[in-house]
């Protein structure tokens, strides 16, 4: 079992995609009628890395980007946000960066994502074996990186190397059906990942998917923190079961803790999960109690859905502190 206090000593390494987001402008404009778009860094892992850096915790990204103008845009944006891009490799050929064309509106929000020949799936064993894992306090990955090889095999190799170096493994389920060849394949791979991770975060739909039946997700989450009756091995140290407007259930250290959400004037639904995870981990890295860290993650999610974009919407620590101070407080979980 990895020592979670290691998060307090060193920056996190985040594995997964960085991409370009194009937002129909001004907010509220449907894609079909838009004549103007604004660009921003996107991709779940890049968003998490930005959330960490803006929250005062260091972060490095491990991924591949296309060797073209869009890939160079991502590199420039990562540098501007202060994310260490030492382990971001440009890959040539037909590989292309992920591109999302998105609306800023709360109802019927459309997000059109182009993932053909995705550059981040080109991450290789050589990429992950080139990392000095002793430099980092934790390894964070999202489920997207596991959808294709060579990225999938490389990620599991990174798990082994990080575990050998004593890093806690943090897994955001982040199930995107369009990335996978089949739901059965995704279920098998996610189960394999969950078996070795120390912290697992997902929403009710994603846990239902992992359980294989609607409404069975909470029991699946509980099973992930339980001791294996056959092998005797311990499960995850922390599992967070997110329930949208109903808040979250945190399963850790033999307890279940329910927390609410911070209500806000929502502009769009995207980016909340990345903000939650980044600020949760940043708070734990700063020595915050787990329940308070979950609430800070929830507050960050509320801020992001009330702003345009994902990466540029991530709050700084002073912004998050101010929001919590002047907000009426979370709902009951």
Topology:
Layout: E1 12-15, E2 19-24, E3 37-42, H1 44-54, E4 59-66, H2 69-81, E5 84-91, E6 99-102, E7 111-114, H3 125-129, E8 138-142, H4 151-164, E9 169-172, H5 183-196, E10 199-203, H6 204-211, H7 217-224, E11 238-242, E12 248-252, E13 255-259, H8 272-285, H9 290-304, H10 317-326
Parallel strand pairs: 1-4, 1-8, 2-6, 4-5, 8-9, 9-10, 10-11
Antiparallel strand pairs: 2-3, 6-7, 11-12, 12-13
Keywords:
single chain; 333 residues; UDP-N-acetylmuramoyl-L-alanine:D-glutamate ligase; 9-stranded mixed beta sheet; globular; 4-stranded mixed beta sheet; alpha/beta
Descriptive report:
There is one protein chain. This protein is of the alpha/beta class and 333 residues long. It has one domain: Ribokinase (UDP-N-acetylmuramoyl-L-alanine:D-glutamate ligase). The protein has ten helices and 13 strands. Strand 11 (238-242) and strand 12 (248-252) form a beta hairpin. Helix 1 crosses helix 8, helix 6 packs across helix 7 (217-224) and helix 8 (272-285) runs antiparallel to helix 9. It is globular and about 55 Å long. The relative contact order is 0.15.
């Amino acid at each position: 079992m990895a020592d979670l206090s290691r998060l307090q000593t060193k920056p996190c390494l985040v594995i997964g995609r960085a991409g370009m987001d194009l937002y129909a402008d001004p907010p509220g404009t449907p894609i079909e009628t838009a004549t103007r778009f604004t660009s921003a860094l996107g991709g779940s892992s890049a968003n998490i890395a930005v959330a960490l850096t803006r929250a005062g915790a260091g972060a490095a990204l491990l991924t591949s980007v296309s060797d073209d103008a869009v890939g160079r845009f991502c590199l420039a944006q990562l540098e501007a946000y202060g994310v260490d891009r030492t382990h971001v490799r440009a890959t040539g050929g037909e590989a292309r960066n992920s591109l999302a064309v998105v609306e800023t509106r709360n109802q019927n929000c459309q997000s059109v994502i182009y993932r053909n020949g995705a550059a981040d799936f080109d991450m290789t064993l050589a990429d992950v074996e080139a990392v000095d894992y002793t430099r980092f306090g934790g390894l964070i990955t999202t489920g997207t990186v596991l959808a294709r090889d060579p990225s999938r095999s490389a990620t599991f190799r990174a798990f082994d190397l990080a575990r050998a170096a004593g890093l806690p493994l943090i897994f955001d389920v982040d199930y995107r059906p369009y990335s996978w060849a089949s739901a059965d394949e995704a279920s098998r791979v996610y189960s394999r990942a969950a078996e070795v991770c120390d912290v697992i975060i997902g929403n009710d739909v994603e846990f239902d998917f992992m359980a294989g039946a609607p409404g069975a997700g909470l029991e699946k989450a509980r099973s992930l923190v339980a001791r294996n009756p056959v092998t005797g091995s311990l499960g995850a140290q922390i599992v967070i079961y997110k329930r949208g407007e109903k808040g979250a259930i945190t399963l850790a250290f033999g307890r279940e803790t329910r927390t609410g959400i911070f209500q806000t004037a929502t502009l769009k639904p995207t980016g909340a999960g990345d903000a939650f995870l980044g600020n949760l981990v940043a708070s734990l890295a700063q020595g915050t109690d787990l329940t308070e860290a979950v609430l800070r993650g929830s507050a960050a999610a509320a801020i992001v859905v009330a702003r345009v974009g994902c990466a540029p919407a991530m709050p700084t620590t002073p912004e998050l502190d101010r929001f919590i101070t002047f907000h009426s407080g979370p709902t009951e979980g």
